[in-house]
């Protein structure tokens, strides 16, 4: 997988790809239209953040590159790449329980609070990229 050089792009399958964890300086792209929504991405080596219609959707520390990010009725699914292990937070439904899968293996269930945020850690340093799936229980 390669970094997303254009910072944010729509894929043929309806998903989006965003982020560039190789950038030394922060770069951003605003007002990107996708499926009737306006997206905004900020990315660099330290952080990657995605907003949809002004609302939080994704953040990673340190920065990551994400491909095939798909919002589904019951969660999200994406492939994430980075140079080092990352803490990822995704915006989901408030006060809801989700099961988290990393590379097809369940790592347990987590519940979002009133803000709808769910945080998870991914080990990227040794493998480079992993598939993440977060599904409502």
Can you walk me through this structure?
The mean pLDDT is 95. It is globular and about 35 Å long. A seven-stranded antiparallel β-sheet has the order 1-2-7-8-13-10-11, with no helix packed on it. The chain has a six-stranded antiparallel β-sheet with strand order 3-4-5-6-9-12, with no helix packed on it. It has one domain (8-136): Sandwich (Chondroitinase Ac, Chain A, domain 3), CATH 2.60.220. Strand 10 (97-102) and strand 11 form a beta hairpin. It contains no helices and 13 strands. With 137 residues, the chain is an all-beta fold.
Question: Helices, strands, pairings?
Answer:
Elements: E1 8-10, E2 16-18, E3 27-34, E4 37-43, E5 48-52, E6 55-61, E7 65-72, E8 75-81, E9 86-91, E10 97-102, E11 105-111, E12 117-122, E13 129-136
Antiparallel strand pairs: 1-2, 2-7, 3-4, 4-5, 5-6, 6-9, 7-8, 8-13, 9-12, 10-11, 10-13
């Amino acid at each position: 997988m390669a970094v997303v050089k254009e910072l944010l792009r729509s894929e043929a399958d309806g998903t989006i790809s965003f982020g560039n964890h190789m950038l030394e300086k922060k770069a951003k792209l605003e007002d990107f239209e996708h499926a009737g929504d306006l997206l905004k991405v900020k990315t660099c080596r330290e952080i990657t953040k995605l907003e949809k219609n002004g609302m939080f959707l994704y953040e990673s520390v340190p920065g990551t590159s994400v491909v095939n990010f798909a919002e589904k009725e019951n969660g999200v699914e994406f492939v994430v790449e980075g140079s080092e292990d990352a803490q990822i937070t995704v915006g989901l439904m408030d006060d809801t329980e989700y099961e988290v899968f990393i590379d097809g293996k369940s790592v347990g269930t987590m519940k979002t609070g009133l803000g709808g945020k769910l945080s998870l850690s991914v080990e990227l340093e040794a493998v480079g990229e992993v598939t993440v799936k977060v599904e409502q229980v």
